[in-house]
Amino acid sequence: MEEALLRAVLFGTPILLASLGALLAERSGVVHLGVEGVMALSALAAFALALETSPLLGLLAGMGVGVLGGVALGVFAVTLRANQFVAGLSLAALGLGASGLLGKRYEGLPLANPLPEGGLALLALGLALLLHLLLYRTRFGLYLRSVGENPKAADLFGVNVEGVRYGALALGGGLIGLAGAYLSLAYRPSWTDGMTGGLGWVAIALVILAAWEPLRAVFGAYLFGLLFFLQFRLQGSVPIPSEAFATMPYLLVILVLALSGRTRAPKALGVPFERGR
Amino acid sequence: MGLPMLRLENITKRFGPVVANRGVSLEVQRGEVLALLGENGAGKTTLVSLLYGLYAPDEGRILLEGQEVVISSPRVAQRLGIALVPQHPELIEAHSVAENLALGLELPPFFSRRALLQRLQALLQDHPLGVDLKAPVHRLSAGEKQRVELLRALLSRPKVLILDEPTSVLTPKEAEDLFREVRRLKERGLAIFFISHKLDEVLGLADRIVVLRAGEKVGEVRREEADKDLLVRLMVGRGVAPPPKAPPPREEVVLEVEDLLVPRHGFPLQGVSFALRAGEVLGIAGVAGSGQKELLEALAGLRPYRGRVRFLGSPLPQDPARLFALGVAHIPEERSTGVVGGMSVAENLALRTYPRYARGGLLDYGRMEREAEDLMRRHRIQAPSPRTPLRTLSGGNVQKVILARELKEGPRLVLAMHPTYGVDVGAAEEVHGRLLDLVREGGAVLLVSEDLDEILALSHRVAALHRGRLVGPIPREEASRERLGRMMTEGRA
Amino acid sequence: MRLELDPAPSLGKVALAYAAFLLLALFLLALLFLAYGVSPWRAFAVFLSPLTDPLGLSEVARRAIPLLLIGAGLAFAFRVGFFNIGAEGQLLLGAVGGAYAALFLPPGPWTLFLMFLLGGLLGALWGGVAAWLKVRFGASEILTTLMQNYLAYYLVVYLVAGPWKGQLVFGFLYTDRFPPWAHLPRLGDTLVHWPTLLLGVGAALALQVLLFRTPLGFALRVLGENPAAARYLGLPVGRLLLWVGGVSGALAGLAGVGEVAGIHHRLLEPAQISLGYGFTAILAAWLARGRPLWVLLTAFLLGLVLAGGDALKLAFSMPFRVVDVVSGLFLLALIGAEALSRHRVIWRR
């Protein structure tokens, strides 16, 4: 039982981190559909640097790649006001592809000194709390929420809409990068192509389940964590094919989407801001 | 007099081939109210947008206290001491009043809610707000929202205040309160830009009046030298005749509404009853958000309701397509809802009747376009061809497309919401003319509008919605602006 | 610097924007090749090599077939505002349906017909589920179709490793070979199964006519351009969306049948049935700007990307993922150029 809870938390951690990152972007009005790809590329960067230098530098590299991914999305979704959904999906494909390509030489190598999972899990929990405070107790948080709800009003109030959105994407990207680094440095200290296994998409769905609140994302992430753990644990011990277990998280995502499909999202979500319109 | 507070020199702004402002020069002094008068589409809003950093001018310069300034964003405008109260309150509906006001302040990076509230209360001492700072903005009335907007603008201690059509969402009483406040601010030395297309307001408030027409400055008059006739001629380039009167209604009842109830956020639309006869216009006024939209959408089959509604003696179906076939036309609140921008003018004119053009399963575009050309001629829709994408048309022409489509089958009932909102005087006259043509032929019109003058000019009877309840209707002869205003705000006839 | 809307961009400016972004994409691609350790020039040459010989061209055509079918359906769906990202899963379901008809229904001259029928139906069901979830619960079809991809993936893995695993194959994860009735004819000794190709051409033509010449297409375009107007007019929005989900899913399903009946002649692991056709077809559809007919061109362009990816894999043992990189980069370049040409840049502060 205790083990189950611990594993649930440990497996829920990357989902939580990625979800917080996507949440931050979405609260500012930008949908980040690139999570899956950015996470994969961060995982690779973190692993590669950890192998060559130290795990801590690897962690930073992973976060750095996440930030870059967020900024890249910003160039298209914020500055150019292109279709956010298509931009995000392209980024996902690009990240998955590039990590598969560049990661080939790291496939199957062991990491001698992985980072502690527990410490990072605690860090993620703390970050959720910090994010809550950031959103509701700081100037940046107020600006960020305003920009996500009504960028036109925020712009008239003198808030730098583009700047705030870039900030949210960069910060959120850092969290997504951290999620990737957690996977390749702590959770399964190695690199394999496709190691994100759809967690990025789960994280995006979780944002909806959490109604765009960081603290609620914690519970959702651990729920998914528990499910992944059960899938792993019950395999073979019950007369149900393992593939059926493997589909459980994805089925749950669909269920979540159906149940919370009409939850109130930030009003300007997905809409590029065009001044004077 | 010294240096003017703000001075515009030869400002020109183009959008593609369209020139929104051409060589406009004007100035405003400290302690002066300068009215910018012009009909819809004259370039007033573009000029405001240039002043507030929403657009960059293509030519010309802006001087603040004699110094040339480049206003590249609203943020810069605020730093320079320019504040704007936009035409429609632009607030963050999900946030509290306090959070909305906080956006107008210089904030520390970290703050607690309590500290913010205390600071705001101190700042608002000489400008009583009259609403709970902790209330979410979406619960406020349009008038209250605008008050928040004004106070937010004042929190930044501006030198220049721009009021863009500030009374369009206000009741007559609220407008009076606003004018009093504006005079007070003027005495404190603010330079005030007052943008409007309403002559009475301009004559009552302004020290000087600049008139814009088709993007150009066509006149500048001192208050003492101005009168209505002169201003109208400057604004429109000709005199405007009042709309012709409709003949008295017939006996036949077209629409009968009894005890209508429409659930909605906040308070429901409740106990609404009225009858509408053939050849009659019933005008419905109300503070924005009092249930007008819900009433019209329910009758148009877009919202579930309870109660008895009969159209020509039989129950009204709740399906927009069937309603139109029965003879119920609907001019929607938002123009953008009534048309499809990427489709052609001909296709937009056929939105209601497209299945009729099918021949052997395929649409006969030749016929569709020929019929469109005919409608375009009759309704004076200005577009290069029926194949032109609708999105390239001006607001007035788009509204004429909607009207032409909705009226072409000779409907028995027209549900019209803000039919002339934001269109120029010429287009508005034509819209009114078409509606009255229909009334003469025995059609009935339910007219919802924010423009009291429009309601009083067209209607046989008038009513008001007050917090979801219908006040009236009363005969037009017994109604006045003031009485209608009371019906809207106090809920008594 | 700031961007303002430009309602009437000049042709030269549009061309410049596209050229700039395509060059940028090529440059980034070259960097990635360098990072992988091959010379960008050689990589580009290999990538384009399928264009130089008949065998290569047939490889391009073979890959264009599923892209054509799926892409036409997606161009159609995008036009109506239904973001079906799950063609991959719908294709797999189609393959499953086809395999069922081939393996378990009595064989005969009707087998191919039954395969396409069943595969198309299963694909339509898979697309329809997403549409239903959107209509009934407001669930974003982008995410549900993506999740359904994983479900379809595991279904195929389960089938080929479990109940449908072939009697005659030992270590491998695939079914027995289909009976000869279930094999599609091919052009000469290439892998171009031309009946599916014809089906794709027919689908693109039919959808083009449907969208732009029929009353149903008229209603669908209204819905895609302005959902609020569709409701205002009283169009049956839910039914239209189910229709679109079903049609785009069915076409992906047919593509799946084509792959197993025309090339593999058995159901095998998901990654071998589809070479990422689902995502690449999104690009084909986006390039076609919501015009199913244009997919006749874009499908072959993207077929070249897939064939080129294969050539890279053979020449430098590069992971096939390189195709995702190319698709992702070019899709980004495309929307970037499109967005930039809609605006004008004002450099003055």
TrEMBL record, chain A:
InterPro entries: ABC_transp_permease. It holds the Pfam family BPD_transp_2. Keywords: Cell membrane, Membrane, Transmembrane, Transmembrane helix. It is a multi-pass membrane protein. It comes from the Bacteria. The chain crosses the membrane at residues 6-25, 30-50, 56-78, 85-106, 118-136, 166-185, 191-210, 217-234, 240-259. GO terms for cellular component: plasma membrane. It is found in: Cell membrane. One of its GO terms (molecular function) is transmembrane transporter activity. PANTHER family: ABC TRANSPORTER PERMEASE PROTEIN (PTHR43370:SF2), SUGAR ABC TRANSPORTER INTEGRAL MEMBRANE PROTEIN-RELATED (PTHR43370). This is Nucleoside ABC transporter membrane protein. It comes from Thermus arciformis.
TrEMBL record, chain B:
Keywords: ATP-binding, Nucleotide-binding. SMART domains: AAA. CDD domains: ABC_Carb_Monos_I, ABC_Carb_Monos_II. GO terms for molecular function: ATP binding; ATP hydrolysis activity. It comes from the Bacteria. The keyword Lipoprotein does not apply. The keyword Signal does not apply. InterPro entries: AAA+_ATPase (IPR003593), ABC_carbohydrate_import_ATPase (IPR050107), ABC_transporter-like_ATP-bd (IPR003439), ABC_transporter-like_CS (IPR017871), P-loop_NTPase (IPR027417). PANTHER family: CARBOHYDRATE TRANSPORT ATP-BINDING PROTEIN MG119-RELATED (PTHR43790), GUANOSINE IMPORT ATP-BINDING PROTEIN NUPO (PTHR43790:SF4). This is Nucleoside ABC transporter ATP-binding protein.
TrEMBL record, chain C:
It is found in: Cell membrane. The chain crosses the membrane at residues 64-82, 112-133, 153-174, 194-212, 240-258, 270-288, 295-316, 322-340. Its main location: membrane. It comes from the Bacteria. CDD domains: TM_PBP1_transp_TpRbsC_like (cd06580). InterPro entries: ABC_transp_permease. The keyword Transmembrane helix applies. Keywords: Cell membrane, Membrane, Sugar transport, Transmembrane, Transmembrane helix, Transport. It is a multi-pass membrane protein. This is Simple sugar transport system permease protein. One of its GO terms (molecular function) is transmembrane transporter activity. GO terms for cellular component: plasma membrane.
